[in-house]
Design brief:
The chain is an alpha/beta fold and about 280 residues long. The protein contains nine helices and 14 strands. The protein folds into two domains: about 200 residues, P-loop containing nucleotide triphosphate hydrolases (Rossmann fold); about 55 residues, Alpha-Beta Plaits (2-Layer Sandwich), CATH 3.30.70.
Length: about 280
């Protein structure tokens, strides 16, 4: 399987702060990847370095092309949804769609029509008059209408209601993704994307602390539940996380441990993230 992105010894410093610290990783083609980390862990910096928006030390290649600066032509192959949008408030929704479609050779009119039909966007209203959620919805529509090989999503559903967030991720699977495309999703909404991910990357303090296939990772760990009077049986196995509720102990550990009569539960990605990184900074 070909690699879409290769990063080798990539470092990005802001003064004395290291946003990326000697990062090396590969992103294979045809995968949906979750990029998880605390606030300030380096997620957005990583994505912007891949696009050449930031200067960095080390080596990055995209589809075997070395990235040394931002090349406008990269957007023929990459669509990027940042955590803020830069839509022109003076244009109407219809004018915005027309402008973006004319500007991008990768525009897929058929996909755009399908998305627009379900969006309920007011075509004659100026972007400046749209709510934050409607602006985000328009930005998502524009981005998903681009027929590109790589989609980068940085907190894509921030500010959207629950119904549209679910519709958005279903759209990714139904309208955008196929085995020739790669998607990287950076988000705090771990539970919302877990069901569509093939791989995960955990980043903390600018370092990659874990990159693995979701199914493989979940097979390697399990949550064991036993009554609280048997706590010592759990503690001797050095659990990664312990929770105590309603007279029971829940411990996240390696899945090959044998504890008699314990209930074994499959962990979520959020629980694995908490175990590896220690939770989100608010």
């Amino acid at each position: 399987m070909a690699d879409v992105i290769k990063m080798k010894n990539v470092t990005k410093n802001y003064g004395k702060i290291s946003a990326l610290d000697n990062v090396s990783l590969t992103i294979p083609k045809g995968r949906i990847i979750g990029l998880f980390g605390k606030n300030g862990a380096g997620k957005t910096t990583l994505l912007r370095c891949v696009l050449g928006f930031l200067k960095f030390e080390g080596d990055i290649t995209f589809m075997d092309m070395p990235i040394t600066r931002h090349y406008p032509e990269i957007h023929e192959h990459v669509a990027f949804i940042p955590d803020v949008n830069c839509l022109d408030g003076r244009l109407t929704v219809a004018q915005t769609i027309e402008y973006v479609s004319a500007l991008n050779s990768s525009w897929n009119q058929e996909t755009a029509k399908k998305l627009l039909k379900r969006s309920n966007l007011p075509m004659d209203r100026k972007v400046a008059g749209l709510s934050k959620g409607m602006k985000t919805k328009l930005y998502l529509l524009l981005t998903l209408s681009l027929d590109v090989e790589l989609l980068l999503l940085d907190e894509p559903t921030l500010g959207l209601d629950l119904v549209f967030r679910k519709e958005f991720f279903n759209t990714i699977l139904g309208e955008f993704y196929d085995e020739n495309k790669t998607i990287i999703i950076s988000t705090h909404q771990v539970e919302e994307v877990e069901h569509i991910l093939h791989d995960i990357i955990f980043i903390d303090d600018g370092k990659i602390i874990l990159q693995d296939e979701v199914e493989k990772l979940k097979q390697n760990y399990a949550i064991y539940s036993i009554s609280s009077d048997r706590e010592e049986e759990i503690l001797k196995h050095n659990p990664m996380i312990i929770n105590r509720m309603l007279g029971k102990i829940y411990a996240l550990m390696q899945s090959d441990i044998d504890i008699a009569d314990a209930e074994v539960i499959r962990p979520t990605l959020a629980e694995l993230f908490m175990a590896k990184v220690g939770g989100y900074d608010e």
